[in-house]
Design brief:
about 325 residues, alpha/beta, Rossmann fold, seven-stranded parallel beta sheet, two-stranded parallel ribbon, 11 helices, 13 strands, about 35% helix, binds nicotinamide-adenine-dinucleotide, binds uridine-5'-diphosphate-glucuronic acid
Length: about 325
């Protein structure tokens, strides 16, 4: 469990549904909410009885009163009964990851990120849930000149994944414009979230795993790519604020406004673990953009959000969590 606590959140919903609760961000969100006394229904298609990652992600929630977990696929389960009396739906379920979205897996991206989202949004509208917070992505911006991305910038998604995330956020926002829809929508464009329980396909996890195990790191490109790395607790505090801020609407960036290169991240991992990292350079991957960086102005103005955790201390917490669970970091991604 992470040692940083959310800093800016002042209010918590009374009752919430978290889709994707067995995932990285969803499990942290559900945990923070349940700890604060929110009644949480978590939904995820991964079954913790047979899926190690889901079980590990959900372990901190065991025994927390007020947390109920449902294993179900949003593509075909009955959603309405789950939403009754909820103040908010946090829709985080989806198929993430830029690089695997090319090729035959694209159908999975479309199914979970678009078709399941349509079902969730229709159900929220029918039940009259006051707020839906949906997980969008910095990837919708596509290639930039290196400057900070503002929510009003023209999206230029550069991967099939990013196209589905743009469709997902716009789908929810389109529903919200309908006269019969009383659900207000906030779409959060998260910028590369890291920290304990991060997905094992992601860079920060892989670089720390390489440092801890001595296994080589595959570096796609020359390492000069830059990301606006966002610590998980900061992502969670923005997400809760998006649910409880009355006038929040539309798309909001969740990224602090600075960026670090992959080479810098390798340097931090090396210094934290005290071991050289063997780097195997490979070709850049399709759809990867050179730089992401958020303009955090709207998040600050609308949500009062200010990230609290710098990259070095966030990576230290991430590393400590991996060290405590070698079975997790030792597992192949
Ligand atoms: P994750 O894969 O750890 O979690 C997503 C969860 O959604 C998984 O547990 C998966 O089983 C579940 N899911 C997928 N399809 C489902 C369906 N049809 N029915 C029920 N459950 C389903 O991913 P994450 O990193 O926690 O990302 C969460 C969300 O945030 C995703 O929508 C992702 O696109 C978005 N996002 C993540 C990041 C990041 O840096 N991690 C950045 C931007 C956006
Ligand atoms: C991440 C998440 O994976 C997406 O789900 C999310 O939507 C996106 O952030 C976002 O911000 O919206 P990405 O920025 O590609 O996507 O993050 P990583 O998967 O951690 O990759 C970061 C960089 O590291 C990329 O340039 C990638 O090519 C590189 N990388 C990744 C490697 O060099 N080696 C690896 O083993 C993994």
């Amino acid at each position: 469990m992470s040692q940083h606590l959310p800093h800016v959140t002042t209010a918590f919903p009374r009752r919430a549904v978290v889709t994707g609760a067995a995932g990285f961000i969803g499990s942290h969100l559900a945990h923070t909410l349940a700890q604060a006394g929110t009644v949480v229904i978590g939904v995820d298609r991964r079954n913790p009885a047979v899926d190690h990652t889901a079980a590990a992600n959900l372990a901190p929630l065991h025994g927390l009163p007020g947390y109920v977990h449902i294993t179900a696929d949003l593509l075909n389960c009955a959603i309405d009964p789950l939403l009754i009396d909820a103040d908010v739906v946090f829709h985080l379920a989806g198929v993430p990851g830029v690089r695997p979205s090319w090729g035959p897996q694209f159908g999975e991206y479309v199914a979970s990120n678009i078709l399941a989202t349509q079902r969730v949004m229709e159900a929220a509208t029918r039940i009259g849930v006051p707020r839906l917070v949906v997980a969008s992505s910095s990837s919708v911006y596509g290639p930039t000149s290196g400057g900070a991305s503002v929510e009003t910038d023209q999206p230029r998604p550069a991967s099939p994944y990013a196209v589905t995330k743009l469709a997902e956020e716009q789908l929810c926002l389109a529903h919200a414009t309908q006269a019969h829809c009383s659900t207000s929508v906030v779409a959060l464009r998260y910028f590369t979230v890291y920290g304990p329980r991060q997905r094992p396909d992601m860079f920060t996890h892989r670089v720390l795993r390489a440092a801890l195990t001595g296994q080589p790191l595959r570096l796609y490109g020359d390492g000069h790519q830059r990301r606006d790395f966002t610590y998980i607790d900061d992502a969670v505090s923005a997400t809760i604020a998006a649910a409880t801020t009355p006038n929040a609407r539309d798309v909001i960036n969740v990224g602090g406004g600075s960026s670090a290169s992959l080479l810098e991240v390798i340097g931090i991992a090396r210094s934290l673990v005290g071991r050289e990292i063997e780097v195997h350079q490979e070709n850049p991957r399709s759809g990867d953009v050179l730089t992401t960086r958020a303009n955090p102005g709207r998040a600050h103005e609308v949500l009062g959000w200010q990230p609290q955790v710098d990259l070095h201390s966030g990576m230290r917490s991430h590393m400590q969590a991996l060290t405590a669970e070698p079975a997790v970091y030792g597992r192949a991604a």
